[in-house]
Amino acid sequence: MRKLTVLYDANCPLCVHIRHWLLAQRRLVPLALVPAASWEARRRFPRLDHASTLKEITVIGDSGQVWTGTDAFIVCLWALAEHRPKANWLATPAGRPFARAALHTASAWRQAVRTEGGPEGAEGPACDDQCSVPR
User: Which of 22, 53, 96, 108 has the most CB atoms within 10 Å of its CB?
Assistant: First the structure.
């Protein structure tokens, strides 16, 4: 695995916060963070169901692998130096319920705070993997 692309909801304050957090972490695998259903996401992954990427986290590997939901959450942690051991545990039968619960909680909060509109109608990318991380 040489690179992962994380599609995140740019209209969700939690997702944007997690994007910034991911970019601030030491990574074992480079991460490109691209707004879900944006022009840039559609350009990079024309065969992907972009409407579904707005509903749950989606991660794409450099060989075309696609992870969604709990698996995508675990893969994101796996890419981070400090969190790889935790990701390995979350991928086990003992850890998986905790990963599902964390994702379920984040999803419920996300639905409560997500703003309307979105990158679908935008002409260009809202903020791709080149955007800066706030300090």
Answer: 53
Distances from the Cα of 120 to the Cα of 5, 60, 98, 102, 123, angstroms:
18, 19, 32, 27, 8
Helices (H) and strands (E) in the chain, counts: 6, 4
Instruction: Report if pTM > 0.70.
Output: yes
What is the C-alpha to C-alpha distance for residues 33 and 52, in angstroms, rounded to an integer?
17
Per-residue pLDDT of the chain (135 residues), as tens digits, is 899 999 999 988 888 999 999 999 999 999 999 999 999 999 999 999 999 998 889 999 999 999 999 999 999 999 999 999 999 999 999 999 999 998 888 877 777 776 665 444 443 444 444 444 444
Q: In the 8-state DSSP scheme, what is residue 80?
A: B
| Cβ neighbourhood burial of 69 (10 Å; 0-12, 13-18, 19+) | middle
